[in-house]
Amino acid sequence: MEINRLVLLAWLAAVFVFLFLPIVVIIIYSFNGGRNLYVWTEWSTHWYGAIFDNPRATSALAVSLQTAFFNAVIAVALGVPAGITLARRQGRWTGPYIALIFVILGIPELVSAIGQMIWMDRIGLFDGITRLSIGHSLFNIAVVALIVRARAEGLGEQLEQAAGDLGAPPWRAFKDITLPLMFPAVFAGLLLSFTFSFDDVIISLFVQRPGTSTFPIYILSSMKAGLKGDVAALAVLMLLASFVGVGFAATLLSRSGKGKTLGG
Amino acid sequence: MTEGAALAPPARHRARLLPRWIMAWPALAWWTFFFVIPLLWILLYSLGSKPAATEAGAVSLATLSFSNYGESLTGVFFKVFVITMRTAGLGTIIAALIGFPVAYAMALHVPARWRSMLVFLLILPYWTSFLLRTFAWRIILAPQGTLSDVLHSLGLIGGRLLILDTNAAVQLGIVYNYLPVMILPIYVALERIDKSLLRASMDLGAGPVRTFVQVTLPLAAPGLLGGLLLTFILAAGDYVVPTILGGTKGLMVGNLVATQILASQNLPLGAAMAVLLIGLLFLIVATVSALLWLARAIFRSSRGAPL
Q1: CB A64 within 8 A of CB A214
Q2: Does residue A60 sit in helix, strand or coil?
Q3: What angle do CA B21, B25, B31 make, to 5 degrees?
Q4: C-alpha distances out from residue B256 to A115, A250, B251, Å
Q5: Which candidate in B2, B35, B116 is best for mutational testing of the A interface (most A CBs within 10 A)?
Q6: Are B21 and A93 in contact (CB under 8 A)?
Q7: What is the pLDDT of residues A162-205, one digit of tens each?
Q8: pLDDT averaged over chain B?
Q9: Which tens digit of pLDDT belongs to each residue from B114-163?
């Protein structure tokens, strides 16, 4: 039994090394001083100083940040009420509604992307960032709705009912009780929507307009010409930023987890 | 809500005239307008034809026919469909073989306080760019790279490592990218198992193998099934991995569709391929689910013990 256990744990460790190998490679190669990211020449922090020197990369980054922001706003604005309602107002509508959510999450992104491209062209929606934000939001609304639903189910509705009994009108109970209780889920959903949008390739590839390429699309198109170290350096900085973000979100979620007994 | 109605004091503020689920409407309207309607348009476009040079627009809907579907299933296009299903299927199986022991070790052999840390580490790669992680494999697998040197000096390969820009590299990239998607649902299912069931099975005389096959595996089945389906669907529709690692020899359906629509300006043919892709996925998923359901029904009736 002890040997089995050791073999399993060694396997576990090996797989985690496998999962992190490419990330380690990117971190090492971001310190590659050569002109081509791919061919190792010498250690240098040169590219970290040159991150914002490439105007095409920075404008793509700006497009990605704006898109991720608007997409996350849409995802939270529509996903949070949907998630709360799914948990609290179950009925015959719940089954088909959740089925639609799973279709949205499960359908190959490619198919959804083509449909959106066709439809946005037809209805004459040609603003690049609007197209990208809407395109990314469809998936993320579903993600936010599911996260919020899980939290709302865990909490029960007694506190809102108590507020109602004490004379609070529904909107006030929602604003003062429901929203603060939902905050960890809302925040996690916001963070996830932002990340998914920031990393998206396929939807962006189809719905983008000339001049509004996102950062991943910029990387993809410059791969053919040969990537330079600035892209890797930027990726490492983004990884650090997401470490901080995830750490923050995790602390927040675990802190509110302790307060869970409050809702019963 | 139903019990609340009986207990509710009359002072309770609640708008009775509004449907109870009105707050879920905005999302539904958004999805209908930007998701459901576009899907219907793909269906319609897949029946159209490439517009003549003199015509305006991306598609000609003057005469509708199934000829795009015929074209998608002949010659080189058909071959790519077969390769895609094989790559996704094989990738799913390999990911399950690698991932199941990992999920098992995480759920049953790692101290509880380490588990959330491992789950965190498992999803951490998703916080770095998918593109760059895939691109990193180009550096690792390069014929002149370190891995190639090591394998060569160990005598494991004769010449240089030449899997880049072939289907083998795509296969590796797919397993790599979707491994966490396979591990997480299995882990969640295994973690929920009441450990006393496993001890009971051992106490009643079943060996470790029998306990695994008859207790652990059936209880982990829903998670395993979820992981298999999710991985397969994501892998079959992938575009990034074959684009970066596959070159011209490692094409998948995603590349074909993108080429038809973005480069060849043949939107109707691309649309038909996309419809075929989801049709095929739906068929495979439905068949697998039906077979599993049947297998479970037979298993139950022969054992007589409901799980």
Answers
A1: yes
A2: helix
A3: 140
A4: 16, 41, 7
A5: B35
A6: yes
A7: 888 888 888 888 888 888 888 888 888 898 898 889 889 999 99
A8: 85
A9: 888 888 888 888 877 788 889 889 888 888 777 888 888 887 877 778 88
The whole-number pLDDT of residue B1 equals 44
Q: Residue type at A223? A: M
Cβ–Cβ of A114/B271 closer than 8 Å?
A: yes
Contact criterion met (CB < 8 Å) for A114 and B274: yes
Interface of A with B in 182-211 (CB under 8 A): 195, 199, 201-202, 205-206
Say yes or no for a CB contact (<8 Å) between A19 and B180. Answer: yes
For B52-101, the pLDDT digits (tens) are 777 777 788 878 888 999 988 888 889 999 999 999 999 999 999 999 99
Q: How many CB atoms lie within 10 A of CB A222?
A: 18
- Please name the amino acid found at residue A248: F
Distance from C-alpha of A164 to C-alpha of A142, rounded to nearest angstrom: 29
pLDDT for B248 equals 84
Lowest average pLDDT, out of A75-79, B92-96, B247-251, B303-307, goes to B303-307
Residue listed under structure tokens 């000609």 = B60
Give which of B128, B177, B256, B262 to mutate to test A binding, by max A Cβ within 10 Å: B128
State both tokens at A50.
Answer: 């040159």
CA distances from B304 to B205, B216, B221, B298, B299 (A): 20, 18, 19, 10, 8
Which DSSP symbol is given to B159? S
Q: Which DSSP category does B33 fall into?
A: I
The helix or strand, by DSSP H or E, that contains position B271, with its residue range, turns out to be helix B267-303
Q: By the 8 A CB rule, do A217 and A60 touch?
A: yes
Residue B60 to residue B51: CA distance in whole angstroms? 5
- Name the burial class of residue B307, with classes exposed (0-12), middle (13-18) and buried (19+) by CB atoms within 10 angstroms of its CB: exposed
Query: Side chain identity at A63, as an amino acid letter?
Result: V
Angstrom distance (rounded) from CA A8 to CA B101:
7
- The 10s digit of each residue's pLDDT in B140-154 is 888 877 788 888 888
Contact A140, A76 (CB under 8 A): no
Q: Domain B85-251: give its CATH code.
A: 1.10.3720.10
What CA–CA distance (Å, rounded) separates B307 from B167?
42
Beta strand residue intervals within chain B, DSSP E: none
Specify the 3-state DSSP secondary structure of A97: helix
Tell me how far apart the alpha carbons of residues A112 and B173 are, in angstroms, rounded to a whole number: 23
Spelled out in words, what is the top-level CATH class assigned to the domain A55-263? mainly alpha
What's the CA gap between A87 and A90, in Å, rounded? 6
The string of pLDDT tens digits covering residues B241-257 is 999 998 888 889 999 99
Distance in angstroms (rounded) separating the CA atoms of residues B127 and A184: 19
